[in-house]
Amino acid sequence: MKEEKKSSNKPKAAKKAKEELKKVLTFDEKIKDFEHRIKLAELGGGKDRIKKQHEAGKLTARERIDIFLDQGTFVELDKLVTHKCTDFGMEKSKIPGDGVIAGYGKVDGRLVYVFAYDFTVFGGSLSRTNADKIIKVQKLALKNGAPIIGINDSGGARIQEGIGSLGGYADIFYNNTMASGVIPQISAIMGPCAGGAVYSPALTDFIFMVKDKSHMFVTGPDVIKAVTHEDVSKEDLGGAFTHNSKSGVAHFMGENEETTLMMMRELLSFLPSNNMEDAPVKNCEDDTTREDESLNSLIPNDPNKPYDIKELIHSVVDDQYFYEASPHFAANIVTGFAWMGGMSVGIVANQPAVLAGVLDINASIKAARFVRFCDAFNIPLITLQDVPGFLPGTLQEHAGIIRNGAKLVFAYSEATVPKITLITRKSYGGAYCVMSSKHIGADINLAYPSAEIAVMGPEGAVNILYRKADAKEKAKILEDYKARFATPYQAAELGYIDEIIMPKQTRHKLIQALEMTQNKTVNNPPKKHGNIPL
Ligand code: HXC
Fold first, then answer.
1. Which phi and psi (to 5°) does residue 348 adopt?
2. Hey, is 162 helix, strand or coil?
3. To the nearest 10°, the Cα dihedral for 161, 151, 173, 400?
4. Considering 279, 363, 411, 431, which one is annotated as catalytic?
5. pTM across the whole model
6. Architecture of domain 293-451+487-516 in this structure
7. Exposure b/e, 25-57, CB count within 10 A at least 16 = b
8. What pLDDT, on a 0 to 100 scale, did the predictor assign at position 7?
9. Cβ distance 128 to 83 under 8 Å?
10. In 10 A of CB 288, how many CB atoms?
């Protein structure tokens, strides 16, 4: 029967072949055909879905890339690839490009790689084809030593493809990990990002989210309700503010997509393209010897009175401009980038205005991660210290302040970039050691005359040493203790502080130290990798 059918098909096949021959296109037709294919790819999921995307208050993947890159610099790769899925009737719906737009372009004239999930195509879900597109740019970025930016807006693994999609995610995670510390990797979340899909952004250096428009969670509100009976909204669970303030998963939050994309461009300006390059240097028109008299009265005489460390930061950096990272998370420590004398620097500062600048678990983790980032990308570190110590309490102890505080010691100790420390006021106990002390490799340690560097605060010390003394005796001993230890002079006598400076000179002194350490070379012992207390 089959043979008969085959032979009866022969004339039909020959006719078809003849028709195919007739279809050979002229050059003009070929151009039209090409243009048609490109148009189809550029339309993604089609006009209706683009309209829906706009109605949801979101830009399309192409619009995002256009805004993010220097105008006219985007070169798209794999624009015409399609998925290979034949289940669930998928073979009938193929869209050229298949839901991820990938390629390279420039930001401020510097090469970057970029990929953006296109929500208009199957909800931006990750097919094997999409994964391969992302992997292609990841590999190119790594080989050519340039940052890679991923813009997420996706329903997760393409359900119709099953394991092919999951494998794609895992391949992407692997490449994220291999690129970590070699090229800057930046993620933007501009829509949903759920399930295992969250782990690619989480493996990158910085995550940007858009206020009220983006969400990240491993399991969504419905699953949570079913498993734990908790009621939680998408926004409370994994919205931009939640991840910027509570979990610390995200580092920046933009008011809208355009500002978020601009913030990402700006972050790149502080970073080298890869770990073999020096940190960027730019022209500085701000006088490097500029003094600020107001700093002489910034630090309150009363050690219990707060002040805003950001006033000091703004005063000393070029053009008073500070690009803060993770401003809403663990605000008792401040991290961010600035220019000093035209040099890109990373700043870590205790914030006496929040929880007296105490070091707790979140502050330790936030600062440790920032220090490691700067070290990986050759960005000198400036540490401003005013810290009463580690936060006491069972909550902190049981949640592992020992392990987490150790992260900060580890990060500072292994960092080989120039490390400059300034103690403005309190520097007590373990926190003295941890916050980039001379002993863990700081190159220059400065202090204000108002610095108090001691094992513990005067009251605590006197209460332990002279427990049985009466109030009058204690008051006398307290004064002696303050005079002897609540100063920078014992540390200066021991050479642990290199120079005591007048606050108004801070900018000049920090820039001098940065210039002096510009060619610093330190090699840690060879190893596979250290074992940071995770
Ligand atoms: C295939 C998908 C899809 C997916 C959405 N779509 N997610 N197609 N695979 N994962 C399709 C929808 O069917 C729809 O197609 C179109 O995209 C737009 O989706 P809507 O639901 O209409 O949009 P919206 O109302 O904005 O809701 C967006 C959403 C929702 C919240 C993302 O679509 C959703 O919950 N999707 C499923 C999310 C999910 O469970 N993904 C799997 C997670 S597990 P039509 O044709 O109807 O317009 C996972 C594992 C990864 O990702 C593990 C990695 C290690």
1. -120, 125
2. coil
3. -130
4. 431
5. 0.93
6. Alpha-Beta Complex (3.90)
7. eeeeeeeeeeeeeeebbebbbeeebbeebeeee
8. 44
9. yes
10. 16
Q: What is the mean pLDDT of each run of 10 residues along the chain (534 residues)?
A: 45 61 84 95 96 97 98 97 89 91 98 98 95 98 98 94 93 98 98 91 98 94 94 96 97 98 98 97 97 97 94 98 98 98 98 97 98 98 96 96 98 98 95 96 97 85 82 84 87 96 98 98 96 97
The CATH class of the 31-269 domain is alpha beta
What pLDDT score was predicted for residue 13?
59
Helix or strand or coil: residue 79? coil
The contacts of residue 19 (CB under 8 Å, 6+ apart) are none
User: To which residue do tokens 């391949």 refer?
Assistant: 171
Q: Is the CB of 61 under 6 A from ligand 1?
A: no
Pairing relationship of beta strands 110-117 and 148-152 according to DSSP bridges: parallel
Q: Give the Cβ contact number of residue 371 at 10 Å.
A: 27
For residues 195 and 157, is the Cβ–Cβ distance under 8 A? yes
Query: Would you state the structure tokens that stand for residue 486, as one six-digit string?
Result: 């609540």
> One fold for both 31-269 and 293-451+487-516?
yes
Q: Which helix (H) or strand (E) holds 252?
A: strand 252-254
Q: Whose CA is nearest to atom 38 of ligand 1?
A: 155
What are the residue ranges spanned by the domains of the chain? 31-269, 293-451+487-516, 457-486
**pLDDT score of 470:** 84
pLDDT of residue 1: 40
Enter the tokens of residue 293: 């008299």
- CB of residue 214 inside a 6 A radius of ligand 1: no
| Best CA proximity match to 479, nearest among 462, 464, 492 | 462
What per-residue confidence (pLDDT) applies to 271?
98
At which residue do the structure tokens 């620097």 appear? Answer: 345
* Cα dihedral 420, 425, 428, 431 sign: negative
Is the beta carbon of 167 within 6 A of some atom in ligand 1?
Answer: no
Say how many CA atoms lie within 13 Å of 446 toward its Cβ: 22
Instruction: Name the residue at shortest CA distance from atom 16 of ligand 1.
Output: 123
Residue that has been written with the tokens 């960005």 in this structure: 379
